[in-house]
Structures are given as structure tokens and as C-alpha cells.
Amino acid sequence: MKNLKEAMLYEKLDDEKVKCNLCAHRCVIIPSKRGICCVRQNIGGVLYSLVYGKATALNVDPIEKKPLYHFYPGSKALSMATIGCNFRCTFCQNHDISQASKKGWEGTERKDILPNEIIDLAIKYECRSISFTYTEPTIFFEYAYETAKLAADAGIANNFVTNGFMTEEALNTISPYLHAANVDLKCFDEETYFRVMGGRLQPVLDSLKLMKKLKIWVEVTTLILPTINDSDEELREIANFIAGLGKETPWHVSRFHPDYNMFDIPPTPVETIKRAREIGKKAGLCYVYTGNILWHEGEATCCCKCGNLLIERTGFSINKSSIKESCCPKCKEPVDGVGME
After folding, report:
1. What fold is seen in the domain 57-306?
2. Is the distance from CB of 10 to CB of 41 less than 8 angstroms?
3. Domain boundaries along the sequence of the chain
């Protein structure tokens, strides 16, 4: 089909049905219909990506914006996305593009750009990495995969900012070219995942475990939603799970602001964010960061062993770094992460 890309990781079934094996929905799609993400369509018994080469966002960002604090800190990332998502989070801050595929694609702009052209841009703007972000990279997998492969060949790193709702097959396929991921662990309750996000918890937990096994650098983000996932018990469950992945795994706890279809609950109190950080610390996590609040202590990286201040941040900017050869200059403890020189 002209201007379409045949999908990866799907299987053909009887009666021209297909089964998509990219995300944990594993949609079975009848002819002419699309999967839950609405960007993958069965045309005559063949599954196609409808967004290959069609970027709806393409920007140069500080890597800290992802947020990734232990992956080439202070560097630039070329951030890209297409429309579409396999979730329907009622609080989505990028709903204008993530949900556009479910609304007839209206109101979105697109830039036709192929993977090799993206690499050229990354080189031009001296980006240390390419970040597949803003929407869910799993649903534009073919585009991300081919771009990431070319990037790795050019010495450029790759990272996903993802909801983690992907299959083992997808993660294993991209893993040789995926160097880091920030995974949204949105809550620790199956019912909430289904009701508020339109997904399930267990596949996200499985993805996090597999990423660690595959030696992909992992950071985790939780947006704290008042009355939904802000109880001490649930925050402890999240923190303990992350600690089980490894105490070196950074946890970003971020403040919620009303958006999209969730205006019935107020912004997260700052004290709740600080409480979540303390819960993470008590669970044994070395690095717990606060997001969407101005608080230098919550943005700083300190040595996991002696507590020495290593990186001082304001927002997405690094004010000062004292790391020497990836180690704390005071006690010589290695600093966890990638590109921490």
C-alpha cells in the first residue's frame, strides 16, 4: 500500500484477521479495522502502520525533561513522536496528539520525515540521544525501530519515554538499540489501571523487570494523583517494587495539574510530593526526584553512599556538577547511570 508501512510483530489469522503483538492489548483486528491505538490497520489481511514517517512532534530537549537524570546528564535529545497511544489516560497532558488518532486525526500537524533525515537532524543539533516520547513509542514501533538502529550505527543513543505496556517480543526486538527508558508506573492497582488509563498493571511490571534484565538503563516516573494513587500504602508498594528492581533505579514523583478529562480533582499538594520522596528513601532507593515543583533538594543528585551533592539542578538545567570519572569526588563511590562522566 502506498505511503503505508507493513507492521512488524504481527500474525495472520483465519478470515483475514490479524493479531498485533506489539503492546499488551494484543489486538485481534478484523479487515478494514484498527487496533486500540487507532494507528495500526488491517488492510486485506495485512497489518499496516499508518504513522510511519509522519512525525507530529520533533524538538530538541534537555535530556532532563524526559525526565532522565542519570543518562548523559546535561546533554541534548532530539525528541520525536507520532500521534496515537494505546492508553486513554483521563489526565493526559499530551492528549492533543496522543488521542488524535481516536478523534479522526483532526487538529494535528505532521512533518513527513524519514529515519535517515532524523539522524541528520540529531547530528546537526549535536544531540547525544534520540528520545521517542510525548506519545507512546510502542505504537509507532517500526518508525522508532528503524530510526534507533540508524542512530546506534551513528553513535547516537536512544531512549523511550513509555507507559511500559509493551510485549516481551517488542522489547526484545528493540533492545539492541535501546539504551534507556523512563517508564510511567502510574499506580499499583489493577482496577485503577483499567478504569483511569485503559490498561493493566502487570504488563508494565513485567516490562520493567525485562528492561533491567536486558541492561537497559531504567528510570521510573509516577504522577501523584490526589485520591487516586496518593495513599502511603500505594506509594510504599510502588517504592518497594522499584527497590526490588535495584536501589540504583531513580524514581521521579511528579505533581499533578488538572488537564484533559480530569478537572474534578485539585493539583497535588507539595507536601504529598515531599512525603512520596521520603517513602522512596525509606524503601532504600538511592535517587528519588520531585517533578513539577520548584525545590532544589528534590532535583539534586547526591552520592548514594556518603550523601555528597553531585549535581545541582534548577528545572531542566544543571547548575553545577562535581562528578569525576563517573564517581563521587568525596568517597569515590561510582555514580549509577549511563554517561555520568
Report:
1. TIM Barrel (3.20.20)
2. no
3. 5-49, 57-306
**DSSP 8-state secondary structure symbol assigned to residue 135:** S
Nearest residue to 306 via CA among 278, 331, 289: 331
Distance CA 75, CA 58 (A): 17
Q: How does DSSP classify residue 76?
A: E
Whole-model pTM: value is 0.96
Instruction: Encode burial over 9-35: b for 16+ CB neighbours within 10 A, e otherwise.
Output: bbeeeeeeebbbbbbbbebebeeeebb
Q: Are 269 and 226 in contact (CB under 8 A)?
A: yes
Q: 26-82, pLDDT tens digit by residue?
A: 999 999 999 999 999 999 999 999 999 999 999 999 999 999 999 999 999 999 999
The 10s digit of each residue's pLDDT in 86-131 is: 999 999 988 889 998 877 665 577 889 999 999 999 999 999 999 9
Q: Which residues pair with 68 in a beta bridge?
A: none
- What's the rounded mean pLDDT across residues 318-325? 95
Give 155's strand partners.
Answer: none
Structure confidence at residue 107 (pLDDT)? 58
Coil, helix or strand for 143? helix
How far, CA to CA in Å, does 201 sit from each of 163, 169, 184, 324? Answer: 10, 18, 11, 39
